[in-house]
């Protein structure tokens, strides 16, 4: 039972990263490899700040900002230097390896200070691993709400239009370059925030912890897609079965 | 009459197999308000390049473009879109497939204006959009339909509506009926003609269809190898027959 709760707890935190990936992969139609670098960037930033005595909340905010800056680098290479999207992401991801090493000063670092966001706000009084579930749900709810509100603004619609049909968006006077910057930066900010949370949950940061993160995120998106299909398919199949049985 | 758009000695050169090729070769064109100009030409004559140059999708190698007397040669596409709208040949190019018809129309309603961080308030516009589409059997009651569920004809009609929902100073139609079946093409062309006359729009329409070229518009231009080789006013155009145009192809 503990294993299941622990898995769900981790899953809720990783799900936050999937929201970030959703912005680039689904909305902007931009395959962003930066994630493998911005995820550990968030982790090392959060750990080093907490180790230096800063609050875990501030550490997460700085992780978000640093992640956004990583996204800025990719967006700049893609839009201004006309480097293909995959290559731009890989270049930033590779560069971030050195940046992460420089920030952390070594390959990995444990959070020796017990103060982290998972034992604040009374979360430490919850049964083991329930703090991750509660915090995950709260953060997912906040980010999802903000994302829904943003996508319903004029700017948000412009981001959707840019990912959907860039030619049309440009002919409507939308600054598509700016929209790509916004999307890629926000996405990587959320990914880095997740990195900061995972580091606090696991109690350490490692410069290699980003390897495979994009696979986890994309798997989550595929599962969402699959469950959406099932959500529509199952009632249809049931209705078909009912029609068949009534006409038999 | 003061010209709406002036194209002064427009040249667009590209490098083709290490040879310089003039796609537009010294185009001089003056478009007056409420002109409905039909542009004909073979493939590669420079028709789409001319439209690209006017919208700002392409920059000229040399020459000037003036809109209402203001030099817009170096103005970017986003700024020009406030005054110039375009319907593409491919129905998929003009709309956003993951948005509904109403959302697309709302997007077009703010054409060329800054996109702010404020709620779009789609519901406030639904009545207006409903009245806008009520006379169009293909789009009536489909405001909440996602665009990727529409047929090519419906999407192209929507693209056209998006181009005119905010009255443009200049409407560019780039073979906008070419990808449609004959009946849908005819219906859209009739709608186009009706709207252009009713709203007193200035329009530049590129087509390969000689029947359309003779039937619609009040001026006809033929492009060949980047040059204007024929420019007929309304009177001369009214005497024109389809066969007369064949020699230019």
Automatic annotation (TrEMBL), chain B:
The keyword Lyase does not apply. It comes from the Bacteria. Keywords: ATP-binding, Nucleotide-binding. The keyword Cell division does not apply. One of its GO terms (cellular component) is plasma membrane. PANTHER family: ABC TRANSPORTER DOMAIN-CONTAINING PROTEIN, IMPORT ATP-BINDING PROTEIN. This is Phosphonate-transporting ATPase. It comes from Companilactobacillus nodensis DSM 19682 = JCM 14932 = NBRC 107160.
